[in-house]
């Protein structure tokens, strides 16, 4: 039972502990339909009882018990780390504790018999320097034994006594220290987690076994600094049981000396900033700016109102005061109140979000949160990183187990976990992904569908919609039982919404609206390094450019400080001047006369746009719209004609927009075609200031798209009339269906299509995957596409983001089509070809006019492919793909693919073996995944002492996609070779009835024996790129594997064979005159061995 409110019990010492209630918002009456002013009906909050007596009062003299310890002399001697309170307020070499509280705090007197008992819950994980011991000692020594029920220490799967620092630095807590802590008192209970759970879940572990009426949550690096620390917290809880009472923190250093600094300084209100990060605000209302309507006041009164100043309010240094938020621990709450609020969301992992969630809960669900100045605690903050080596003991983010990192999607750099991530260079740079995940859960649950949530997205991620890598956290929240339980508790408690909280809590307590409210702009200041100013011009404060940083930048041309976002416009750089030179050159190109017979205009001739009423084979009840995403990197010659072609061929009712993504082109594309002019063709620009490559540009375009279907086109295409019809028809029937057009060729000089196939069903639309992470074009009689070529496709927007979009860690180009195809198929979707949808495409043929003008990162394409196949192929990646030479640099290295696998972890996707079985027509029937590979040895006469085998003349373990010559070479190699130099062969390609096999294929290549048109007497045998539907071209006769000798037949007439001529060359002859061949070193390749037993049985029984 995760929540104890149904059967909660405590060792209560006060039968009337529940009777003390403060009613907020007016009196309460249980009577209805009667006169509320009648004295007979009027009820006090303590109706029928004597008015309650507060549990505290004040005296003129200070209370000596403020500095006492509740230990006998023998007990005190046993405590190794407990420090004196230091009543003089001076730290004596770490022995005395410096006091920062108001001296009047010592004048309180408390009635302990009216106070609830307390369980102190401490969570820890790899705490160094005896901090846990000191923390437990100070709690035991300075809490009245009659009130303290237990101290529960939860060890969150720490690693005892381990770090890599010098030997003189204290190690993490170990078993010796745990034994010492347990020996201090029978009230101390230690619970150890088998798995890492994090702060919130560890506190829940302690809360479930706690027996006190109040739960006090503390960190494991604290020191209670008075013997009445708990009394000051309990008093407001007795007055109002719906209270969270928080201690005031004094800072202890983290460098081992445990010295106190200057304390917390002026008391402050707890807030969150626009990054949803907890912080403090020193005062309220002091900078309030009253909006004044000039028309409402006379001149004299208006002048007086403008002089009006609002006095700044600061927190009381003695009395508890309300605060919107507080830090994550060091607070007390009644146990039954804690469970009424649902405890913590069990879906909050590691750290972050638990304090904001608890603050929203208590305020929205009828309670309050107080800071208590007289309850002080020393707390060690994790501030230093590596100073004198000791700060490394408290480094943040914490080191997490790999299982948790993988589950939460943490990032890696060069194979090493960093705990950080980057989103569009926005402030998320320095947040852990885990914290953002937790914050998104809190936002969904307690902010809801409020504009503040989308403003938070904009601040953190640069856009109001979440990228797939973060949207998956929200999707996870929606179906997570822990989140659903929290929302049910919210409903049961009839909690208020975010608007109510902003009005009655945040605005009232801080003097301003929530951090994302538009009214806050008048309070905003720019950040200039370590200080703030009202504007960038005021940043330097007389110190020149050294103080102009942060949100501002120094302009040498104007010799002043200006906003970073204004610098490009107000202070042009050398790069900007170079850009203007490029623009002039490009303008000259535009004005140059085209060569004879060529059309070089940037624009197409104006013509009538396609009409929906003229379209055949379209269901007019289909209301789906499309957004066409066109990524363009330096495609200045083609982008306008591509966009106009799309516009003219797509009816207005269908085309929602053309999202033209300018991938850092110089000059920017919109300078050649203005936004206003482009908008007439439904174009919406997305400008990327830094190049992200094809993959990143497509993702950015998808995030900006608003249509029901996203169509991805390259920036040099011309779609044919009605190209879009199969897209909307197919997706309407199944939103998980992805559609691939038939790709033809485009003459970019005339902007005309060529090489269209004579009949529907030709052209290029289908590919299949080979184990070296390459994709090969193919055709068959089915509509299904195993692998997309990548650039041209249509997919529903919902399905695109449901499967996670494009991998955020892929760079430039390549591999994204493999990843996307495997995601779609294994996660429940399908990819189909549309033979009646033609799109003409400019192929990069090596000429200057088709050459790409952007640069690809060295090795990016190979790494992308490696990422894709590792994420999806399972054991085939390690045992097969990595054997290819192109992936040799990734052997033995960690390649993190969590950005792929985590995005669809909740979709219950099938594995790669399922995919191989789904496309048995390729991998079994066309022999792409062979059961047997072998060398082809010629059987020569007895005079030949050297065995000769069939080899490719130049190719070894690669897929070049071009022809080669098949020759005889000396047989070498054996079945144990991991990277055999000779060529192994296997049966391949489908016969006319669809079964295997009609050809011979060189293993690990795409080359097959060319038996399409063999000529008798020919002395040259060639290979060509395998046609999986080749029919009968090259085969061994007889086909029985038990036969030791074979004829190698070529052609479809069963009359021509390959023979050995003169023991050194090959020749095509009639089969009765041909030499024979035998298999040499035959073995079952690893790709077949990795199939499961059921798959093997199925393949062999059907073959």
Protein architecture, described:
- This protein is α+β, with helices and mostly antiparallel strands.
- It is elongated, with a radius of gyration of 37 Å.
- A hairpin with a 5-residue loop joins strand 39 and strand 40.
- The strands form 13 sheets. Strands 3, 4, 5, 6, 7, 8, 11, 12 and 13 form a nine-stranded mixed beta sheet that branches.
- It has 29 helices and 42 strands.
- The longest helix has 18 residues, at 574-591.
- Helix 8 (354-364) runs parallel beside helix 10.
SSE layout and pairing:
Layout: E1 56-58, H1 73-78, E2 108-110, E3 118-124, H2 131-141, E4 148-155, H3 175-183, E5 188-192, H4 199-209, E6 214-218, E7 222-224, H5 229-239, E8 243-252, E9 269-272, E10 278-281, H6 299-307, E11 321-322, E12 331-334, H7 335-340, H8 354-364, E13 368-380, H9 402-408, E14 412-413, E15 416-417, H10 433-447, H11 451-461, H12 468-479, H13 481-492, H14 498-510, E16 526-528, E17 531-533, E18 552-555, E19 560-563, H15 564-570, H16 574-591, E20 626-632, H17 639-649, E21 655-663, H18 675-679, E22 683-688, H19 693-704, E23 709-712, E24 717-719, H20 725-733, E25 737-747, E26 752-754, E27 766-770, E28 774-778, E29 793-796, H21 797-802, H22 816-826, E30 830-841, H23 860-873, H24 875-879, H25 898-901, H26 912-918, H27 920-923, E31 933-938, E32 948-952, E33 964-970, E34 985-990, E35 996-1002, E36 1007-1009, E37 1021-1025, E38 1034-1037, E39 1047-1050, E40 1056-1061, E41 1065-1070, E42 1077-1083, H28 1086-1089, H29 1093-1102
Parallel strand pairs: 3-4, 3-6, 4-5, 8-13, 20-21, 20-23, 21-22, 25-30
Antiparallel strand pairs: 1-2, 6-12, 7-13, 8-12, 9-10, 11-13, 14-15, 16-17, 18-19, 23-29, 24-30, 25-26, 27-28, 31-42, 32-33, 33-37, 34-35, 36-37, 38-39, 39-40, 40-41
